[in-house]
Design brief:
The chain is an alpha/beta fold. It is built from eight helices and six strands, in the order H-E-H-H-E-H-E-H-E-H-H-E-E-H.
């Protein structure tokens, strides 16, 4: 524990000497595998994964990140065993209520994006409660992607666009900036850095519009084992890259 803290502190000092990414998004993968490797029910891995979320949120606030987004439950995750899905929904509701006071205390604003209306009512109510309670948070903007899919977001945006514009819509006049206004969170800046745990090399339908020019960092570490040190390691790697956005 001492040596882990020491190396984390040293790396943090290095990270803070260079500009930070404004927005870090994380695909939190590997909870189930973490539990199975230990002969435990998958829900135990998800519960341990929540602890990792808490640790990363604390580190993000410590170093001064402005935006942090977690991919928590996808539109495809409903295909998982019913018992696991029910357990996850209970965890989301429990986590929201339990963490509310801590988020307020630390100036964290929580927002949720996705097809929230399809979640169990208890989860919807808990998330809306925390969103309202933390709306004045100025330190860190924390977003949970729940029942979220990148393709679903784009389809929903197009649907809203046509409902608003109707037959007068001229797609030849639509700009990327205008289209952004129809996304779930139009004011959320594109991720500068996208982190994926568990070693998988895919986006898994996450922020497909927004990650067009995001830097990607993949680690084989399973999400429950992801520590502040790994976040700092990803940011340090990001700081060494040259972002061109199509330019030379």
């Amino acid at each position: 524990m001492f040596w882990e803290k020491l190396r984390t502190d040293r790396l943090r000092k290095k990270v803070l000497t260079r500009p930070l990414p404004q927005h870090v998004a994380i695909i939190t993968d590997g909870n189930g595998r973490w539990a199975q490797k230990r002969g435990l029910p998958r829900i135990v891995g998800h519960r341990q994964g929540i602890k990792a979320v808490r640790d990363i949120v604390e580190e993000a606030g410590r170093i001064g990140l402005k935006y942090l987004t977690f991919y928590s439950f996808s539109t495809e995750n409903w295909k998982r065993p019913r018992e696991e899905v029910q357990g996850l929904m209970s965890l989301f509701e429990e986590m929201a209520i339990k963490e509310a006071e801590s988020l307020v205390k630390n100036g964290v604003r929580l927002r949720v994006m996705g097809r929230i209306e399809e979640l169990p009512q208890g989860v919807q109510d808990a998330m809306r409660y925390v969103e309202d309670k933390t709306k004045e948070g100025k330190t860190l903007n924390l977003t949970l992607a729940l029942n979220y899919g990148g393709r679903a977001e784009i389809l929903d945006a197009v649907s809203k666009l046509f409902l608003e514009k109707g037959p007068k819509f001229d797609n030849g006049q639509l700009t990327e900036e205008e289209f952004r206004n129809y996304l779930y969170q139009p004011d959320l800046p594109d991720p500068d850095l996208l982190i994926r745990t568990s070693g998988e090399l895919r986006l898994s339908n996450f922020l497909l519009w927004q990650v067009a020019y995001s830097e990607i960092w993949v680690t084989k570490v399973l999400w429950p084992d992801f520590k502040p040190y790994h976040l700092l390691l990803a940011i340090r790697d990001y700081q060494k890259r040259q972002r061109k956005f199509g330019r030379v």
